From TrEMBL:
Keyword Cytoplasm: yes
InterPro entries reported for this sequence: Mur-like_cat_sf, Mur_ligase_C, Mur_ligase_C_dom_sf, Mur_ligase_cen, MurD
Annotated metabolic or biological route of this protein: Cell wall biogenesis; peptidoglycan biosynthesis
Chain's role: Cell wall formation. Catalyzes the addition of glutamate to the nucleotide precursor UDP-N-acetylmuramoyl-L-alanine (UMA).
UniProt-listed NCBIfam families: murD
Enzymatic reactions: UDP-N-acetyl-alpha-D-muramoyl-L-alanine + D-glutamate + ATP = UDP-N-acetyl-alpha-D-muramoyl-L-alanyl-D-glutamate + ADP + phosphate + H(+)
Gene name for this UniProt entry: murD
Annotated ATP binding sites: G108, S109, N110, G111, K112, T113, T114
Entry protein name: UDP-N-acetylmuramoylalanine--D-glutamate ligase
Provenance organism: Flavobacterium sediminilitoris
Length: 443
C-alpha cells in the first residue's frame, strides 16, 4: 500500500512515522520548505520526501493520501487526486484506525483550545493515562505510533473533520458556531456548519455529544438532523435537568444522576465563555468517572492557553493583554466583552470575510483607540473610524505596541485581539503573540 502525505509539518511527519511502522510505502511531499528537524526525522526513519514541489508521478500512484489540514481542496494536486478517486483523508482518520484508545473530540469556532486543554487537565489530574493531540501539541499519529495512551483528547478543526470517513469520538464536544474560515467553504456558512457536525457522523447510542444549549445554529442543526449519540447540553441562560447550568453563583452539572456543584468565583478562568468551557469539560470528566473533588481542584488550578487573553505585563498601570489566538470576530467579541477598563485595541491581518458590525456596540463602549496591524486595513477604517477617537495604521508589531503605549493612559488596557488570520505579516498566530509579548517587554 502506497501512502502519500501532502504537507511535511507536525501532522505529516507523525503520519509518515505511523505509516512506516504499519508497513506502508510512504512518501512525503511539501510544496513549501520542510523544517530541518523534520527532514532529519524522515531521513533517520528512511522515509522518502521532497519539498518545494509536488512531483505528480510520485503522488498520483498513491492508494491513500493524507492531506495536511492547511492545504485547501482547490489546490491543483488535490483536485487531480479527487478526480482519480484516490481517498484523501486527514491525519485523525488515518491514525484512528490503528488505536483502540478512547477519544474525546472537541470542535467549535471558539474556545476549543481552552476546552481541550481543560479536559486534558481534568482527566490527567484524575489519574487517567491521557494524551493531547489534534490541532494542538504533538501529532496524534505520532503518539499512536508510540502507543502510550488509553485516552486521547483531540482538538479538531473543521479542516481535520473534512477528511474523516470512519473516525468516531466516544465523546464529542461542539463548543459553539460562528462564521469562520468561510474563504475555504465558498463563503457558505452552511457548508462550514456541516463540516463541524461531521464529528458526530459515526457516533452510536453508546457515544455522547456535548453542546451549547444557548447556541442558535447548533440547536437549529439538531432540530433538523438526526444524531444517534446521547446529547448533553450546557447553558448559562437557563436551568437544565441534564448537563451544565448556572444556579445563583454556582456552576452545576448533572450527568447520569451524579450532581456536581462549584462556586463560579473559584474557577481559574474568567469570563462568560469560559464558564461554558468549564461546563463542557466538567461533563466529560463526569462521563469519564473522575472524582468530584478532583474536578473542583482541577477547575480552580488550571492555567489557561498561551495567546488567549494572556495578561503579559503591567507598565505604568497599563495592562497589556495578548489575545493573538482571536482570529475571528466571535473570539474578539469575547475578548472585548471581558474588558473592564478603557481599551486600546490592536487589530488586523488577513480578513477571512469578517463582518465587523457585530463588534460595534462593544467598540463604542470599551475602545478609545485602534491600532491597525495588517497589510490592508481599509475595511477596519470604513467600519470604525467614525466610532473611536484615534485610529492609526502600522506594519510592524513593535511599532503597533509603541503607538498603543502612547495612546494609553493610566488604568487603561492594551489588547492585541486581531480578529484576523496572521499570514500577511507573521508566520502564525503564535509568532504574532510572541512578537507582541517581546515588544511589550522592550517598552
Amino acid at each position: 500500500m502506497r501512502l502519500v502525505i501532502l504537507g511535511g509539518g507536525e501532522s505529516g511527519i507523525g503520519t509518515a512515522i505511523l505509516g512506516k511502522k504499519k508497513g506502508y510505502d510512504v512518501f512525503v511531499s511539501d510544496f513549501g520548505k520542510i523544517k530541518e528537524n523534520y527532514k532529519e526525522v524522515l531521513t533517520i526513519n528512511k522515509i522518502a520526501w521532497e519539498d518545494e514541489k509536488h512531483t505528480e508521478s510520485l503522488i498520483l500512484n498513491a492508494d491513500v493520501v493524507m492531506k495536511s489540514p492547511g492545504i485547501p481542496e482547490k489546490v491543483p494536486i488535490v483536485k487531480k487526486l479527487l478526480e482519480l478517486k484516490i481517498p484523501v483523508i486527514s491525519e485523525i482518520e488515518f491514525a484512528s484506525q490503528f488505536t483502540t484508545a478512547t477519544t474525546i473530540g472537541i470542535t467549535g469556532s471558539n474556545g476549543k483550545t481552552t476546552t481541550t486543554m481543560l479536559v486534558y487537565h481534568l482527566l490527567k489530574q484524575g489519574g487517567l493515562n491521557v494524551g493531547l493531540a489534534g490541532n494542538i501539541g504533538k501529532s496524534f499519529a505520532w503518539q499512536v505510533a508510540e502507543d502510550k495512551y488509553d485516552v486521547y483528547v483531540l482538538e479538531l478543526s473543521s479542516f481535520q473533520l473534512d477528511g474523516i470517513i470512519n473516525y468516531k469520538p466516544h465523546i464529542a464536544i461542539i463548543t459553539n458556531l460562528s462564521p469562520d474560515h468561510l474563504d475555504r467553504y465558498n463563503y457558505d456558512y452552511n457548508l462550514y456548519i456541516e463540516s463541524k457536525f461531521r464529528i458526530i457522523k459515526n457516533q452510536t447510542e453508546d457515544d455522547f455529544l456535548i453542546v451549547d444549549n444557548d447556541d442558535i445554529e447548533i440547536q437549529r442543526w439538531l432540530q433538523n438532523n438526526k444524531t444517534n449519540a446521547q446529547i448533553i447540553s450546557f447553558s448559562i441562560e437557563k436551568e437544565l435537568e441534564r448537563g451544565g447550568f448556572l444556579n445563583e453563583n454556582n456552576l452545576n452539572s448533572n450527568i447520569n444522576n451524579e450532581k456536581f456543584t462549584m462556586p463560579i468565583n473559584e474557577l481559574a478562568l474568567e469570563g462568560k465563555h469560559n464558564l461554558k468551557n468549564a461546563m463542557a469539560a466538567t461533563a466529560v470528566a463526569q462521563l469519564m468517572k473522575i472524582r468530584k473533588q478532583t474536578i473542583r481542584e482541577s477547575l480552580s488550578n488550571f492555567q489557561g492557553a498561551e495567546h488567549r487573553l494572556e495578561k503579559t505585563l503591567k507598565i505604568q498601570n497599563v495592562q497589556y493583554i495578548n489575545d493573538s489566538k482571536a482570529t475571528n470576530v466571535n473570539a474578539t467579541f469575547f475578548a472585548l466583552d471581558s474588558m473592564k477598563t478603557p481599551t486600546i485595541w490592536i487589530v488586523g491581518g488577513v480578513d477571512k470575510g469578517n463582518d465587523y458590525d457585530e463588534l460595534m456596540s462593544l467598540v463604542r463602549e470599551k475602545v478609545k483607540g485602534i491600532v491597525c496591524l495588517g497589510v490592508d486595513n481599509s475595511k477596519l477604517f470604513s467600519t470604525f473610524s467614525s466610532v473611536v477617537d484615534t485610529m492609526v495604521e502600522t506594519t510592524s508589531m513593535e511599532e503597533a505596541v509603541k503607538i498603543a503605549q502612547r495612546m494609553a493612559e493610566k488604568g487603561d488596557s492594551v489588547l492585541l485581539s486581531p480578529c484576523c488570520a496572521s499570514f500577511d505579516l507573521f508566520e502564525n498566530y503564535e509568532d504574532r503573540g510572541r512578537q507582541f509579548k517581546q515588544a511589550v517587554y522592550n517598552l
